[in-house]
């Protein structure tokens, strides 16, 4: 039998080391995700009437249930 065919304890239960994620690499993605969340909150909560970016009611109607669910004033 070849030596590599023998199961070693490491092969049965491999040791998994935690992956360290540096904050400097994580920060731009956290800022990007935060901006996306702020944009989503804007479209759910404010996008209507005088504050509207788009001149139609499609965005407002699309997020209307979420608007009421989150307690934003609506109608
Ligand atoms: Zn409403």
From TrEMBL:
InterPro entries: CbtB_put. The keyword Transmembrane helix applies. Keywords: Membrane, Plasmid, Transmembrane, Transmembrane helix. The chain crosses the membrane at residues 28-54. This is CbtB-domain containing protein. It comes from Cupriavidus pauculus.
């Amino acid at each position: 039998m070849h030596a590599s065919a023998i199961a070693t304890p490491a092969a049965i239960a491999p040791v998994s080391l935690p992956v360290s994620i540096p904050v400097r690499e994580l920060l731009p993605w956290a800022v990007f995700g935060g901006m996306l969340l702020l944009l989503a909150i804007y479209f759910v909560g404010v996008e209507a009437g005088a504050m509207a970016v788009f001149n139609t009611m499609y965005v407002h109607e699309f997020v209307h249930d979420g608007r009421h669910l989150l307690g934003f004033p609506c109608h």
